[in-house]
Structure formats: structure tokens, C-alpha cells
Amino acid sequence: MNPEIRDKYEVVIGLEVHAQMLTKTKAYSNDINEFGAVPNTNVSIVSLGHPGTLPKMNKKTIEYAIKLGVACGCEIARDQYFARKNYFYPDLPKGYQITQDKTPICTGGAVIIKTEDGQEKSIGITRIHMEEDAGKSIHDVDVFDTLVDLNRAGVPLVEIVSEPDIRSSQEAYNYVSEIRKLVRYLDICDGNMEEGSLRCDANVSVNLKGAKEFGTKVEVKNMNSIRNVQRAIEFEIIRQIEAIEKGEILTQETRSFDALKGITISMRTKEAANDYRYFPEPDLQPLFVDQKQIDAIKSEMPALPRDLFLKYTQKLGLSEYDATILTDSKSIALFYEKLISFTKNYKGAANWLMGDIKSYLNQNGIEIENFPITPDKIADLIALLDANKVSSTVASQKIFPELIHHPEKNPLQIAEELNVLQDSNEDSIKGYILEVIEKNPSEAERYRNGEKQLVGFFMGQLMKISQGKADPKASNELMREMLSSTSSDNSTSSYN
Amino acid sequence: MYQNFAEVKKALSSGVSVLEIVETYLSKINENSDLNAFLEVFEETVKQQALEVDKKIKAGNAGRLAGMVIGLKDNLCYKGHKVSASSQILQNFESLYTGTAVQRLLDEDAVIIGRLNCDEFAMGSSNENSAFGPVKNPINKNLVPGGSSGGSAAAVCAGLCTAALGSDTGGSIRQPASFTGTFGLKPTYGRISRHGLIAYASSFDQIGPFTNSIEDSALLLEIMAGCDAYDSTATSRSVEKYTSFEKPEKLKIAVLQESLETEGVDSEVVSKMNEIIEKLKKEGHTVENVSFPYLEYMVPTYYVLTTAEASSNLSRFDGVHYGYRSSEAVGVEATYINSRSEGFGPEVQRRIMAGTFVLSNEFYDAYYTKGQKVRRVLRDKTDEIYKNFDLMILPTTPSTAFQINAVKDPIQMYLQDIFTVHANLTGNPAISLPLGKHSSGLPFGIQVMANHFKEKDLFNFSSYLIEIA
After folding, report:
1. Tell me, what DSSP letter sits at residue B368?
2. B311 to chain A: which residues are within 8 Å by CB?
3. Are residue B375 and residue B358 in the same domain, yes or no?
4. At residue A489, does pLDDT exceed 60?
């Protein structure tokens, strides 16, 4: 699309993110809440909607929703009222979903994201409410029939509704990434979009810049990765601008994203929309949340990615790039937090974690939780390096691999066993240098006559006779000094 | 013939076995099959149960209800047994579990003899809305037994079981109790768990007993009441000892003036009320007329709110997961439309339609919201009365039982509930006592209402009133 045309328009996006809560049991029954079980096995008379059954509140869901609300700086409602959202669908056995309508548990608040040009931007949160998931209709397994799996029916969800503050598909991508990071840090959702435990619907509209009103809103559904959220929105922006440019009038509708074709397809128009007939759920008593409970949840909150990011950049002096990578995943951040409790070399710790440790994890396809070396041992290794007791090459190529096989040993012990402890004692280095110069008088002569590149040859010889243990940095300096000032007939005594 | 638990116990102590008692009831049910009270007799399981209870009695470890033979309204779930809410849509549906109230009876060694006819999904006041035919009033078989728990009332009246359970959403226990001369109790909302009761209107429904004695009513409440992990609306308030009747001190009793002045109330009902008022005054109690000018709002409010809840509660009967599915069901929409159109009777369909309407976006505020507000006002005004009075008395029904097929206009039928919906709208406990005897020979009930969770007062007073009236 012609960037000039595109630039005439402002894009307005609001997102609704559904996150399945990681509770042990479902929202209103004792059924197990887990992904991937044999279809229709995690069900009971309650989730099957049998006659005479009633919901029983899983209070954990309130705790989780409050955690998220606190993390986003939301107002937490004290009285929890529930409502029924009525519609017929084969994967909805009761014919209604229990949700919150007029009184969501959290209102207000914001999520901070990065814009394309690296600026921080606050995306307002309209509301966060609790509801139960429906079952799953499977249309592509059986040729003739739609199959229904009710394992998901009654799984607790939080729905996070953003203000229409998002202005590009990249911002939408960053927003969903941020939400995913947040729910993972809070341990309330595994954030797996492919398995559907995190889902996103986007409300997209475009309008000419400066227009007083937003354009016609289109809802886009069925995006099963953050990347697809971005793709679907991008497609929708261009589709809408092109339509307007052609003089077409957009209709308020719901569209579905086809990831294979990369396009959105109309599902239903507003006229065909359901009247959900919300009304207060009479089977659940309102639940009261007191300040004590909120305070208790606050006091148990883990460090959040943004807090850690600010700490790393402002207090520890790390670059934004390093801080971003370290806080991207909670487990990496936790490892780093432990690591820096044993060392003050924050940059070195970050480098080890993002370098050797991450490549080991990647090569072996494991998570940091299964990394064999404990943070204190990594800190010991950093200390050896900082004291110039080992070279960085030795540390990463000799000690680190050995430590992985023998995580019970400590780095110093390994360095000793491997005989790789570096010699940075000036006197002993000088001894090695003299020996090298004495053994190679003609090369020394050539050096003094201007062939300064021969220092590399001498360093090689030095490493050979010191068995690699001479501290290269210190040796290099001394070598140049001694090569320049000695002549072949000078006695060694002046240096002793 | 055992009309109440006292007679059963007497028989037991004279050496009659529970099995023999059950057999007596079974033959009695057989003789009275024309009443159409029982939809199904659990002949196999009830005899099995009886044998087990007999063993327990011999071993000296039988529960408090050993020997009591109970029938269940066909909207109460009992594991391994059919439950249909007297509807085609659940014909042949078997429950996978036993509801809490029924389980508590079983735990005290009651035996369950069968399931009793009722209006479809408890919607009706004459038991003419059952998919399995009307129930006849044992006192006069041309008359209705009342509804919706008509089968329960008829069975207890005719002595086909010692007691029966019903459910009361707008009078479905008390009105049939009035028409059959039995005791019918609707406890405070939340006193008995609704787990296992097929919902009609969740914020109104309560399970309650039909009995031939006040003692049996109190005993059954005592056993069924109490909090329940399966129903968060069941209260954790402690259960009092309802069975130890204490003679009440001097009471302050309110009479709702409008209930005696409303058009259509049988004059003999009014004079019975007045007779009772005089007796109470003579006994030294204070009885005062209280104006409660909301009577005309109660039935409309009741129907707006109950149909709204019902339209949602009955959504689960959709022909997809269980119950009746139309043979014309091809595709999702046809499955819904045909299964529900064929499976539900006309009154149920009428109420689903009405409820869907009052909850619709366009009319929500005009009906549902307004209904909620009126309900709030009624509750507040009723609470005000209980600040000054201990109890309230009023007729249960405006008249005695009417002829089968006599009331054809649904609105006229809805007015049957005029004195009973109050307790459901406000959640108060109420009991219908068989104190009235019409010159036609038919019984009618006098209703006593109490403040929330004051069932103890209700029983103390009721047992006293029976003595003096």
C-alpha cells in the first residue's frame, strides 16, 4: 500500500485478551483443569450441565484475578457479583456462561508497552473480569460431524479488555507480548496461544487523521499466535483503508483470521449478533473481598518484569537490550536474580547468562529450570575470571563444560584439577619471558629492529612454555616492555 | 395404613417390619393408581432398602427416619433413578447422582418409594401441566390436587407414603397442601440445599416436605436443612431443634388486611381466618391488621422474575447432550428448535418465551430491572413488619380445590398464587396448616409466615395453633 495513503489514516485498536487460569480445578466444579487430556474425561455433572447441579465458586480464581489487577494498577472491586451470559451452542452445556457483567473485579489500570520507536506508552485497561470457558467444538476431525470436547467447559478465564489506545499492529504485538509476560510472571496462566490458553480478539478501526470520531469497528477473532495477531490486524488495517479509499462503507462485523491465507473473513454482521440477556447469576452468592485479602495478595506478589527492567537499567547499569532479554522470561530473570545475589559483577553475570548458559540451553533444548549448574557456582566462576585466575577462554571452554558434568564441584577445584589456573604473578611471568627471549635471540633482534609484529610469535612461545597459564594480558605488556629494553648480550641479572 | 411417622413407629414397635410397611404402601399405591400420583414406583430398590433398614433396626443402629417411606417430586435427583420433571424432554433420563436433601433422608434410613407427578418443570398450580396426565385430588377425584407438587400432595393425602418432598417456587407446596388437607412447608430460601432439585427459578425455589403431621414436617426439615458444599446459596446458619415444640409466649401476630379484603376470596376462608384471630386474641396474643398494599404487584413481579430465570435455567435442555432429541434434528438449529418445541409442553414454552422477552435488550429495564426493584421493596416492607410482629397469618389459597379443566385462562391460574408468592419473593419461611374445612367438605389451608430463618418460631406456633383452633 502506498505509504502516503496509509499515512492519511489513524489506526485505533482495542484488544480483548482471554487468559485461562492455571488453577488445579475448574471455576465452578472440582473437575481437573488441564490441557491435553483425553476428550470428555475432565468432566462432571456440573460441567456437563446436568439437571439440578449448581456452581460452586473456586476462590483461587478471585485471587488470580486480583493479582493481575494489582500488577496493572487496577481498582479492585470489593463485592464480586456474577452474571449469566445466555446463548445456545453445542459446546455450552448449560446454555449460559457464568461471567461478570456490570461489576468486573478490576477496572482502570494500564500496561506499559514499547512503541515502534522505542518510546514507552501506557495502554489503558478498561476492565478485567472472571468468567468460565466453554467447551471446544472440533470441526476438522470427523468428516460429517462436529465433535464436542467438554474438558474445557468451566475452565476459569480472566478477560482483559484494553482501552482503544493501540495505534499499530506492532503495538498490538507488543501489548499481547507484555500481557503474556505478565501472566507468566504472576503464574496465573501459561500464556500458550497455540494451545489456546491465551486468546486474543481485536477491535480494529481506521479513520482519517484529525477526524472527530473513530471509524467503523470490526472485531477480528481466531488468532492463535502473537505473530498472527499482528498479521491479522495489519491485513485488516489495509483492507479497511482500501475499502474507504474506494468509497465503500464498512459494516460493523466480526471477522475470522485465516492464518494460512493471511486474510480475515466475515463471520457475522452486527444485526445477526446474539442478545446475550445478561442477568445476575442467582446460583452464586455475591462474594466479598476485604482489604486484608488484597494486602495479603500484594505482599506475596512476585517481582514484575517492569520492576526488574527498571532495576537492571537504573540500578545495575545494564543496557536496555540486556535488561529486555533478561526479563523476557520469568525463569531467566529469577536465575539472574539469584546469580547477582552472589556476585556484584552484574554485567559479567548478564553476559554469562545470555551467552554460554543460553547457548547451552538452546543446544540441548532445555529450560533454565533444568540447567545443572547452580547460580552460586556461576558466580564463583565469574570471581575466578575477575581475579584473573583463569582466562575467559579457559573459563568458557574448559571449566564451564566440566562444571556441567560435575555440578557438585566448584570452579576453583576444577581449574586446579585441569591445571589451568592462570599465572599473573609478575615475577614468574618475567621468568618465562626471559626464557623465551634467550631461546630466540635472532627474533628478539629483529623485533628491536622494528618487526613489532613478532610479539605474537613471542606470546605463542610464552604460552607454550607456561602451558597456557601465563595471564595473557599482563604478559603481553611485559613482553613488549622487555623486548624493547633488552639486548641479547645484556645480563638477565638486571631483571632479577 | 400409616398416615404419619408416629403410626409407623407404633407398628415397628409392635414388631411390624419396614418391608411389611413398604408392602402396605405399595398395595395402597396400586389401589389408587387412578390418582396418577406416582409416575414410577421404585419397587425393587425400595424393598432392598427396607430389608437393609430392618437389619439396622435389629442391630440397634438405625437412623432417625427408619421406617419412614418417602415419595419424591419428579424434579428431585436420586442416583440411578429416572427423573423427568414431568416433561417429555427428560423422559427416560436417569440421574447420575443423589441430591443433598434426598441424601440426608437416606442417611437417616428413610426409604424412597417412587417419584411423584407434578406440573412440568414445576410450572403450574393444578398439576394439569404434566406431560404424563393430571393428578386427581384423593378427596374428590373430579378436582385438582393443586400444583405444581400435586402428586406429592395427593400421595400424602391418600396415605400412599408417610411423607413426600415437593418444591415451592411460588406456592407449589403450600397451595396443594391447602387443597388436600396436608401440611406443606416452604422453608426460608437457603435453608435446604437445592443441589439435586431441577431448577425452575433459582432465586425462588426451595425444597420442602408434605406430611400428615406437624411433627413429621419439623423432623424432615431438621434432617434436610443445613449448609452444603454443592450449593453456595444454602446457608451455614445452624439448624435448630425444630422437633422440640415449645409453647409460645404472648405473641404479636400480623394479619395482612388486604388478604381478607381481596375480591375472589371465599367467604368461608375469611370467616375461618376471623375465627382463628378471635381465638388467638382470647388466648392473650396481640393480633393486628397490617396494611400491605402490594398484593396486586406480587403475582406480576413473580412472573417477570421467575420466567426470566426459567428461560435461562431451561436452556440446558437442548437435545444435544442428554434427554429428548427430535427425530427431525438435522443440524444444530433444527436440533434446538425441534427438540425443544416437541419436548416442552405449552405452559413451559409460554414461560420460556416470556422470560426471554423480559431479559431482552430492549425490554430488560422495563420488566426485569423493575421486577428486581419491586422485589427489593417487598422484602424491605416485609422486614419492617417483622420488626413489630413475630408472625404473620393469611389464607394459603383464596378458595378450595377446583374442578379439573375448570381454569383455562393462564392469568386466572396465576392468581391461584396470590397469597403464596409473597414468601418466595421475600425468601421467608411459610407453612400451610390444614385448619379449614369448607361446608362443601373440602379442606383449605391457613398459612403462617415467619421472619427469615425463624422456622423454630413457625413450628412452635403452628403446633400450638393446631391445638387451639
Report:
1. I
2. 86, 277
3. no
4. no
